[in-house]
Fold these 2 entries.
Entry 1:
Amino acid sequence: MSLKPVVSHTDHAQGNLDAELIIVEFGDYQCPYCGAAYPVLKELMSQFGSQIKFVFRNFPLSEMHPYARPAAIAAEAANLQGKFWEMHDAIYENQIDLNENLLIKLAEKLKLNISQFKEDLENTELAEKIDSDFESGIISGVNGTPSFFVNGKKFDGAAIDLIRLLEENAE
C-alpha cells in the first residue's frame, strides 16, 4: 500500500524537512502500542534526525480509546500556538493519566494561552484536520496503530525495526 495523499506542508513534520527519507506515523494518543513506540521514535530522531523527515498523522481509534480524539484536538490546538510537538510529546509522556483534565494541565505546563487553547478545542477546522488525517490512513491501508510509511510505502514492522533499517542503510 502507498501513502495517500503524499506528505505536504499541512503535515506535522520534524527533523530534516528537506530529507530524502520520509517516515510517516499514523498514531493514536491513547494506544498503548503507540505509547510503547514513542520512546523508540525519540531515539530514532536523536540518532538519525538529521537524515529523516518525520511526520505524524492523527489516527484516533475513538471506539476503543475515548481520549484519543480529544488528545489529537489538543495537539492541533497547541499547534495553533506553535507547540504541536511539545504537546504531542507531553501527551505520550503522560499517556497513562490521559483524560480531559490532563490536556488542560499539559497546556498550562507548556505555557499556552489557556483561554485561546480552550476556544481552539472547539474549532471545527481542527476536527476536520484530524478527520482528513484519519481518511488518509483509511485510503492508505492503515488498519491499526501505530502504522508507518517509509518514503510513501507501508512499512510492515515495529518502530524498533525502523531503527534497524536506518542502521543498515548507514553502514
Entry 2:
Amino acid sequence: MKKFLCMTLMLLSVMVAKAQFEEGKFYVGGSLTGLDLSYSGADKFKLGVEAKAGYLFRDNLMALAQIGYKHIGDSEIGANSFNIGVGGRYYIIQNGLFLGVNATYEHANHFDDFKPGAEVGYAFFINKSVTIEPSVYYNPSFKNSDYSKVGLKIGIGIYLDPND
C-alpha cells in the first residue's frame, strides 16, 4: 500500500509539473549572488543582487534579460559594479532542472568587461507559480582571469500565465 501511495504521489507531481514550463508564460525573478556574507579585514563584505525577466517562447525554452548590482568592499577591484545582459534557459526535465547561458556587460569603477556565462539550477515549486531557484554559475572574464567567477546563487522566480 505504501508503494502504491508513493507511486501515485510521484505520478501526480509529474503531471502537475508538466504544465509549468509551457510556451507563452512570463517569468520574473530575483536572486542573491556572492553569498559569502562573512566579513573580515582581509575579505571585506560581498553581496550581489540580480533581477531577471523572461518569456517561454517554446515549451522548456526561455529567453531572459537581466540586470545586476554587486557591492565588493575591496578598493582594488572597485567598491561597486553594475551588469546588464541577456540569456536563455533550457528546462531539461519537467520537474525543474535547467541549464542556462548568458552574456553580460559588467562595469566597475575602472573596469569594463564582457562575460559569457553558464549555470545549472533547479526550480523548486512552492506553489503553482512561485519557485525557489538555487543554481551554480560560472562567468569567465576575457580581460583578466582574476575576475572570472564560480559561485552559488539563490533566487525566487514567478511564472506567470497570461491565460490565468
